[in-house]
């Protein structure tokens, strides 16, 4: 065997020994990292399964509470919602809190319902849920509270750039009408009616309110009261905004004079 071959074999043996030594040093870290990856995947999958199963259970509990409320068992529904609010997963506890507040309103406890909605609004980090809670509280206060109570909750939602401005202005207008501030109520209703993004349903309600105020003499009439009453009937029966007045029919042109007899 040549010296060159001997040196090659020795070199290969040395490289093999070095690789074995390197593997002995790194093997625990490589194997540990592999186990860690497998464990993380297993934990993630297990958590996903657990979350889905918990959400499914919470959904079932919520529907059971809604069914109980629909059947008239308000006390049973309230108890189920209390359990769901305390132990539910995902967004179901918040839904349970909203439904609990609605149940208080259905039971005639307006003050309790308003307090529940106020607590929800103060606890929410989601701005849309907070605004919804404030609107629902204001909706109750239109009947049971004062104009100041309503404005304290939703005046900031009635600005031109607020997404819920139309509903907020409607509620404020109703509270103003109840308080006897008819000019302010008319302005609130007209602001909604003139909103280019207002849908037909809310436009119809604004037209109804304005027509009703006109028929009562609460606003300066722009047309006879009988016309306002007819507008209300048209909205109720046809579920549509009052039709615009037809354009005036031009007067018939006088017939051409007969040609002079030759």
Could you explain how this protein is built, in words?
- The chain has 262 residues and is mostly helical.
- It has a domain at 127-222.
- Helices cover 74% and strands 0% of the residues.
- It contains 10 helices and no strands.
- The protein has helices at 3-70, 74-87, 92-106, 110-123, 127-144, 147-154, 165-178, 182-193, 200-216, 225-238.
- The protein is elongated.
- Pfam families: TPR_21 (PF09976).
- Residues 225-262 are annotated as: Disordered.
- Residues 240-262 have a biased composition (Low complexity).
- Main sheet record: none
Strand content: under 5%
State the helix count.
Answer: 10
DSSP strand tally: 0
Order of helices and strands: HHHHHHHHHH
Distance between the termini: 146 Å
Class inferred from helices and paired strands: mainly alpha
Shape: elongated
- What number is the mean pLDDT? 75
Rg, Å, rounded? 36 Å
Contiguous low-pLDDT stretches (5 residues minimum) are 240-262
Helix content: over 70%
Task: Write a brief structural summary.
The protein contains ten helices and no strands.
Q: Would you spell out the secondary-structure blueprint of this structure?
A:
Blueprint: H1 3-70, H2 74-87, H3 92-106, H4 110-123, H5 127-144, H6 147-154, H7 165-178, H8 182-193, H9 200-216, H10 225-238
Helix pairs in contact: 1-2, 1-3, 2-3, 3-4, 4-5, 5-6, 5-7, 6-7, 7-8, 8-9, 9-10
